[in-house]
Input
Amino acid sequence: MNTTALRAQIADALKQERRNPRARALLQGISRPAPLSDLDLRRAEAFAEAYVARVPELVDEALGRAAGTFAEPKLRRMLEVALAYWEEEEDVIPDSLGLLGVLDDAYATLALVQALSLRYREETGHALVSEDVGVGNSAARALLGEELSDRLDAFVDDALADRALQELLAELVEEPLAPPPPPVWEVDALAFLLAGSDRG
Output
């Protein structure tokens, strides 16, 4: 899947959400230690939109840095693996459910990108993408709930165990990319709350 198709899928999900708002009710229905307030539900919805929108932006940023280099075809194949969940017919959350229907896809992709980036940083000192997606992923995991998140983490674990993906990462480490640019997305304070971090 290219990012043009990905952006179209996200835009379609957001149109569905605006025609038939369901995200807040679905979020409230997910089992979690404490229910979200009306204010937090509104902020959670805004966070989810921003989180989902970052997927194609981060993919394009990474591919742009690799353009014309030894790393480009290898990084492209790695990102294709990370985006594979968007094409799964058996979603954890059906795509027909608007914003929540693509939140699971975004989490599956960004959780895998986070894992790959951590391994890459251990070897090169630099991340694969321009920001640490860990806080956003923790917040998305909290929104999705433990049961759904565990099913998505199983997809990530299977992808990481794939020998071809491991070989691609090892080849990237041999000829590292230039360091990524500074992050451009500020995670909403709700993300820190959901991730269990001190907001200060």
Q: What stands out?
A: The chain has a mean pLDDT of 85. The first helix runs from residue 3 to 19. The two ends are 40 Å apart (CA to CA). The chain has one domain: 3-194.
